Amino acid sequence: MNRRAWGGGVAALLLCAAFAHYCVRIVPADAPQRASAPPEPRAAPPRADRPVATGALLIPVEGIPPSALVDTFTQARAGGARPHDAIDIMAARGRAVLAAADGRVEKLFWSEDGGRTLYQRSADGRLVYYYAHLDSYAPGLTEGQALRRGQTIATVGSTGNADEAAPHLHFAVHVMRPDEPWYGGRPINPYPLLVRP
């Protein structure tokens, strides 16, 4: 073996020894353990003012848990003359109303029954989400505007034929044909879409 090869081998051996000395710590199994790094903090529990997502759709009133929802879809309205075809979400006046899904503002409309309303078409165009009895719209909201799930779009109120003493969001979902206007469609029950079974 020549000297040059032998010297290279010794240098490599010294480098390995230095690495082991400075970088590797061998601890016997019975040695006392040093305190490890503190555990990562747990995620904070959801606050009451955050959006609550449990089903296919976001519950469209800020901070309302699934346990507060009541399925009122088949309840009679107008003295039994028609079904409700929606869910009423009771909340304090002025509480934020949130977009239940991604989509686009189809229509901002005032009606005698619904008061201040908002119609949102889903991103795929197959559904319309109807928000009624609103106290106000979010500042700058316009027809045609793109909406993201959880975005504040309005506030809870009691406009239209709602009881002034019982502000709430009237929330409905309609299945749409491609050619149907914002006021058309077939109502489906939003309750199971908001609350995971």
UniProtKB/TrEMBL annotation:
Annotated ranges, domain M23ase beta-sheet core: 83-189
One Pfam family hit: Peptidase_M23
Xref: InterPro entries: Cell_wall_metabolism_enzyme, Dup_hybrid_motif, M23ase_b-sheet_dom
Stated name of the protein: M23 family metallopeptidase
Cofactor: Zn(2+)
Keyword Phosphoprotein among UniProt keywords: no
Keyword Translocase: no
Cross-referenced CDD domains: M23_peptidase
Keywords: Hydrolase, Metal-binding, Metalloprotease, Protease, Zinc
